[in-house]
Design goal:
Blueprint (H helix, E strand, L loop, with lengths): L13 E2 L5 E2 L3 E6 L10 H11 L4 E9 L7 E8 L3 E2 L2 E4 L12 E7 L2 E7 L4 E6 L4 E4 L3 E7 L5 E8 L7 H5 L5 E6 L2 E6 L18
Antiparallel strand pairs: 1-2, 3-4, 4-5, 5-13, 6-7, 7-12, 8-11, 8-13, 9-10, 9-12, 14-15
Amino acid sequence: MSTPKAVDTPVVLEISPNGGIEGRSRRYEKFLGDMAGVYRDDAAWQAAVAARGGDELIYWVDDHRYQEGPGALIVGTSTLLPGRYGEEFAVTRGHIHAISDRAELYHCLSGHGVMLLETLDGQSAAIELTPGKAVNVPGHWIHRSVNVGDEPFVTLFCYAADAGQDYGVIAEAGGMKNLVVADGDGWTLAPNPDHRGYRGGSETSESDS
C-alpha cells in the first residue's frame, strides 16, 4: 500500500497596504542601477543614476509559496516607488509567464498605478488601478506595473506556482508597444517608436517578479 502524500499546512500571512508580507518565503528587490534598457529615455535614466546612485531601491516584491508544482499558488505584494525618467513614469521590468497561458490577479492596496498589458499578436490595454480595484490578467498577456502617482504603488498578486516569468520578451522587442507618459497632471499612452513587435514564443523560466 502506498503512503499518502503529505498535505501542506495552511499559512496565515499579514499583508501590509504599504507593501510587504509577514510570513513571506522571500523578498526580491530591484535597484535603480538594475534598470538599464528599461526606459526609452536612457539619458534621463543615466542622469538619475548619476544623481541618486545605482543602489537606490526602486521596487520590491514579497511572496509566499508553499510548493513549486502544478496546483499551488504564489501570493505576494509588489511595491513600486514613484518616479519619472523624462516623461516616462516608474515601471517594473514586466513579463509574460514562461507557461504563457497562466493568468495572474493584481489587486491595488495603495497608491495609483496602471497595469500596462500587451499580447504577442499586438493587442494592448492599460488598466488604471487605485485602492480596491483589481485586474484579472488572462494568460498570454505581457504585463507591467506603472506608478503614475506620487506615493508607492502597492499591489497584491496571485498566480500559479509553475508559471515562471519571461522578461526577455520585452527587451527583445525594443520595449513595449506603448509607453505610459505624463500628460499635465495625469497620464496618457504614447507609441514607442523603438518597438519591433514580439517574438512568437516564451521559453525562459525565471522565477522573480
